[in-house]
Amino acid sequence: MKKIRYLPFGYTIRNGHTVIEQQEADIVRNIFKAYIQGASLKEIAEDLTAKQIPYTERTCVWDKARISRILENAKYTGDEEFEMIIDEDIYEEAAAVKSARRWNQAVQESEGIRQIRDRVRCGQCGAPMLRHINSKRAIRESWTCSNADCGIRVRVSDGELLRKITLLMNRVIANADLMLPHPKVKPRDSAVVLNLQQKISDEMEQERPSEDRIATLLCEIAGQLYKETNAKTQIAAQIARKRASLMKLQDAFNAAYFSELIDAVSLHVGGGVVLHTKTETDICESEDKPNGSPENSETDSFRN
Predict the structure, then answer these.
(1) What angle do CA 37, 40, 41 make, to 5 degrees?
(2) Quick one: which of 114, 257, 106 has its CA closest to 173?
(3) pLDDT profile of the chain (304 residues), mean per 10
(4) Rounded to an integer, what is the distance from CA 206 to the centroid of its chain?
């Protein structure tokens, strides 16, 4: 660590040669990752400052300019003097994000994307997915699983994603019964119910059984049986079904309808979309249509 930084952050001099300083290199990689995943220059700088990460021996204070210089420094991809810290694809993706933000292109989210972005889940592992922009791609938008052990990336445009969601929402509106979950199968009474029934039998064996005692136990059994079924969910589902039946088919994404009926959206390999309703049912794309196509979606094998 130098008092005054004349080498790019992430490198140091040993035996007269420029080499990677591993702890700093990890910080560089985290900066690129955070920026690509949506953090601003200011947010990254404030986070590093709060964690007291040294920039030089003299200061642990980071600012937007220092973060920007790191993101713009092509030396991190490696050359004759500097070893590679950042893969070239990652560097280019960060540059594309920076350009898009600077010129206010592509990164602008529609109201529909703002509505769904915190509800998008990985169809493979269920973890939240993060939206990315790469202006050099034909399809600029993609979603990456936040779980490093999964790491799938689904490339699908905002327009195509909202179109698929709208089609699935229209399916619910056309058939409101899709909001109704399957009732739970209850093959036998639980231990709690059996215990209450035994207490009634014991009371009946008494010389003078107490009607009040038996009535109380019967009420407890009724309450327990209600608790062990999904009757409450079924009631909520019937209300949701009624609301869906009163909705009108839509030509475009309707944020109000989505918010009222849908809990989450999962993205699958190939661009397939599944809606998870607030009544615990899943609305899938029809089996007779492919879940995405090379023309409108792409899935990459991706590891953080």
Answers:
(1) 120
(2) 257
(3) 68 91 95 89 94 91 94 93 93 82 54 89 94 78 90 90 93 88 65 87 87 89 73 70 88 90 92 91 68 38 39
(4) 60
